[in-house]
Specification:
By secondary structure, the protein is of the alpha/beta class. Helix content is 45%, strand content 16%. The protein has helices at residues 3-14, 40-53, 70-73, 82-86, 92-95, 120-134, 150-158, 170-185, 207-225, 239-247, 251-254, 259-273, 285-295, and strands at residues 27-33, 58-63, 97-98, 104-106, 139-146, 161-166, 196-204, 229-236. Strands 3-4-2-5-1-6-7-8 form an 8-stranded mixed beta sheet, sandwiched between helices. Helix 1 crosses helix 6 (120-134) and helix 7 crosses helix 8 (170-185). The radius of gyration is 18 Å and the shape is globular.
Amino acid sequence: MKAFDQAAELRSIMGVRRRPTAIGRCRVIAISSGKGGVGKTNLTINLALLLTRLGRRVVVFDGDLGLANVDVALGIMPRYTLRDVVIGTRTMAEVLHQAPGGFWIVPGASGIEEMTSLSTDDRAMLIESLRELGELADVILIDTGAGVGAEVSSLVSAAPEVIVVTTPEPTAITDAYALIKVAVRGQVPGNDAQTRISLVVNQANSVGEATDVARKIALVAREFLNVDVRMLGHIPEDPAVTRAIRKQAPVALAYPDSPAVRAMATIARRLVETSGQLDGTKSSIMGFLNRVAERGLPATSVRRVP
């Protein structure tokens, strides 16, 4: 399918008649964590829902290549996944799936080893598809894998904004700092479009505990990495989150008045409020794609279907 045709198809699917803002102004935020089990994917899907309620067109891109689980968390069984786009059998428009709450997801591929790294041609195909998607969405949230591997490093160092999710556990704090270090040291020398890094402390027992965790990470990051890490917010320990996860539903839908949802709603509002502080194109989909092109993603061969 030609690029023009796919763009028209995407507009039709997302119900967009025309783009109200300049092309390339779509905001790209990578949501990542130094270790698994800290609530990264849960935060991603609920922020997507809450930002949608605030009037934003939001797409969640499952960036955990090979171990994708956004669709599982939402109880969705997509017919097609990102792998179909990469190998050329489906367009991004055909893969795009509307989630409960009105936002959209690009489902990743789970359990497929070849998706953990991409060839040059496959990267080009993916970048072009993301560019077209970015012309229609207001916000793209990238749910990265956990840890500090090459795939995660490539995404977080290229993203204009990164939200690092941690918990008060010592191992989670250590791994969160390791991820921040990877994001900072992955910057291209001489490139002034540095990644904006924020922190969300999940499963906190109190505001004081969350603030203390954020303060420690920010101090170390400032001293050793010369980077400012701001606290975007904290999410309290809340049994409603566990119940919603078992239902495979966003907690913002299942338990909209729960403490965790109120906290995430505050985070969503802060994201909207800070959008005016960002540096135009450098913080947009075009800035992200330019940096992906500079850095590349881990490469191997994926057979393309003729």
